[in-house]
Amino acid sequence: MHKYSIIIPTLNEASGIRQCLLALQELRSECQLIIADAGSPDETREVSLPLIDVFITTPKGRAVQMNAGAQKASADVFIFLHADTFLPENALCCIQSALDSGAQWGRFDMQLVGESFMLKVVAVMMNWRSRLTGIATGDQVIFVRRTAFLEAGCFPEVALMEDIAISKCLKKISKCYCLTTKVKSSGRRWEDFGVWRTIVMMWSLRLRYFFGAEPDTLAQLYRQGKIFNKIL
Predict the structure, then answer these.
(1) Which of 53, 98, 115, 188 could make a disulfide contact with 177, Cβ separation 3.0–4.6 Å?
(2) pLDDT of the residue at 40
(3) pLDDT, mean of residues 186-211
């Protein structure tokens, strides 16, 4: 019986998923590895299968995929990991220490990996914002007890902001345990769109969400990487 289930949502990750999964192989004695794939037409499945325990195909949508992965999970603790994010060597020890202290859920600090110095600034801001608000983002690798996850109602199956939405639900159960140990996440999207441009975009999307914008609309804007002159 595994102690942890690591659930990775994927879509067309053939070029990078092997590196992600190889980094997790030393954890397999304690972790069940689950890929929840949204029907990738590339070789994500073929590359993943030798390196995981469960591969499922689901409808597209990160929240839908992660919920489906959780349904297949055998462990009592879920770890939701993005395919371009890497855990530190002592990740399981950190998580277990948090759980032993009474935590029901939590997340890691994060480091954005890339060329731009501004990525360091962005990561620091994200980590501090998370501490102040008790809201975790998917890039920070959310971990949660099965019981708390089910009590929170799983991830709301929205097109975007599912991490913020479930954080709000989980906060009603217990506060977010913020681990200072850092996961490393790719800063590729930030650099591709431009770091400053992406900062403005993400704040715009978050403000729109706060004021009631539909997640489907926000997801479309996020995919397009657009910047807006008006927040509302």
Answers:
(1) 98
(2) 96
(3) 62
Give the HSE-up count for residue 145: Cα atoms under 13 Å, Cβ half-sphere. 16
Classified by CATH at the fold level, domain 4-188 comes out as Spore Coat Polysaccharide Biosynthesis Protein SpsA; Chain A (3.90.550)
Residue with structure tokens 């200072």? Answer: 180
Q: What global pTM score does this model have? A: 0.85
**Could you give the strand order of the β-sheet that contains 31-37, starting from the edge strand earlier in sequence?**
54-57, 31-37, 4-10, 77-80, 142-145, 105-113, 177-186, 85-86
CA 152 distance to own-chain centroid: 17
Per residue in 52-90, pLDDT (tens digit) is 999 999 999 999 999 999 999 999 999 999 999 999 999
Return the sign of the alpha-carbon dihedral for residues 125, 187, 82, 201.
Answer: positive
What DSSP line would sit under 33-89, residue for residue? EEEEE---SSSHHHHHGGG-SEEEE--S-HHHHHHHHHHH--SSEEEE--TTEE--T
- Of the CA atoms within 13 Å of residue 148, those in its CB half-sphere come to 24
9-24: average pLDDT: 95
Q: Is residue 177 within 8 Å of residue 83, measured between CB atoms?
A: no
Return the pLDDT at 160: 75
Full DSSP string of 92-131 = HHHHHHHHHTT-SEEEEEEEEESS-THHHHHHHHHHHHHH
